[in-house]
Amino acid sequence: MRALASAGAIAWLLPAPSSAFAFRPSSRPAAPRLNLHAAPSVHRPLTPLFATLADEEEVATVQILMSDTGGGHRASANALRDAFNVLHETEPARFPLKIHCDIVDLYTDYGPFFPFNAYVALYKIMAEYSFLWKWFYELGSTPFGLWFNDFFLELLCFEPFQECLTRNPFDSEKHDVRADMVVSVHPLCQDTPLKILNSLDTNGASRKEGRTTPFATVVTDLGGAHPTWFNDGVDKCFVPSTVLKNAATASPSAGASGGSGADYTGAPEKQDEAAEMEGVHHKPTIRESLGLADLPTVLIVGGGDGMGGIVAQAQAVGEKLQKLAESTASSYQMVVVCGNNKSAQSSLSPPQTKWGKDIEVNVQGFVNNMDEYMRASDILVTKAGPGTIAEASICGLPCILSSFLPGQEEGNVPFVEENGFGCYEGSADGIAEKVEEWFASTATTTEGSMLEQMRECALTAARPDATLDIARDLADMVYARRQELKRAEGKVEAAAAA
Fold this sequence. Notes:
Layout: E1 11-12, E2 59-66, H1 72-90, E3 98-105, H2 106-110, H3 119-128, H4 130-141, H5 143-165, E4 181-184, H6 191-201, E5 215-218, E6 236-238, H7 242-250, E7 269-270, H8 283-289, E8 297-301, H9 310-328, E9 332-337, H10 342-348, E10 359-364, H11 370-375, E11 379-382, H12 386-394, E12 399-401, H13 412-418, E13 422-424, H14 428-440, E14 444-445, E15 448-449, H15 450-461, H16 466-497
Helix pairs in contact: 1-16, 3-4, 5-6, 9-10, 9-14
């Protein structure tokens, strides 16, 4: 999602300044505060008090809930973690305490049994067969689907998930303290965790109200989002656009008040130490550092799992670039990042595939420095994943979208097209023709070439500082919670002394 960790950091798109918004209806009743004189819970401690490091330095703690159903969720969590570290180092007067993040795959680590503990494997199957994804996505968006999901998660996963939310942020085997704050970066990590926190903070009296532990949602989708992202009970919900702000307020999950209690203030994207845009204009240096030739470059990626017909796309683009090179007496370069798809990586590497003499081809597996490969490239071919699109916009990289998951990623296509930095092409031949067209185009205007205009449009759509903006808001929330806990502890000590 950093003068943040360099390679592989992602940034989250925020709305442009003119469309930024903050929405906090005042109709939501204040959550009941913890009764300090109530008997301690016999199950778990009510709140974490003072988590410390080995040297007794006070530290705030945040538990980030996610699941590895797609690479963007963990990348978002890591980006926020790194942003907290940057804020502590660069703005110590405002953020004097370190913030330790406990990042948890809620379903893989705490799902009680199939299918809950197999969401990652099931995601890969449904992503490969998009008709399955479409069916489950659309069914899950209906009032019945939302009720069904909520009912069975609470029925079957409440106790296992409570083990997660009560674990020590520094030692998952202990349950003596829990995190000061909880952040969700996954659509299925709102409803049940909120009920658990209500129960914990009221000593088991209620699952519907009484939460005092801060809870925020950071939406990692871009142009469209499932209703399960949006819950009326969160303290803040960060979204990337007014499109999703409208979806949030209209969501059945937001309750009758239309999202009461949530702040829609924009969402994060990932960045790195070279988050400034000058990286876009130093392609030769970046290419040299990656061992690439200094040639016009197309980058083809298939996501962390290498999905989306990447072999056919690379072969079609390679053939078209060789023909273009022969007709223009030029040379071109293609970089293919196959992710975890080892079969694709092997198929595209010599001797299984022989490429034309006028194109340089570099085939990679999973990489942690995707931002560097993007800055080294002139065109990106990718599935319509929100994290990849957002990072491409920060790098000023025109996009050809090759596929999308129905529902979840479908809205990302108009986001790219309407912002003027790319298009959708659903076939390998269509992608190859578009790459040829963009490289071959010599038509210029007063604003420059076609690719240069799209680069400028991509940079206009980007918000490279969004991760730090989100982290500042979250840090303010967790710091306020620390002060609240200190006051509570002081009252308990005073009462005990009396």
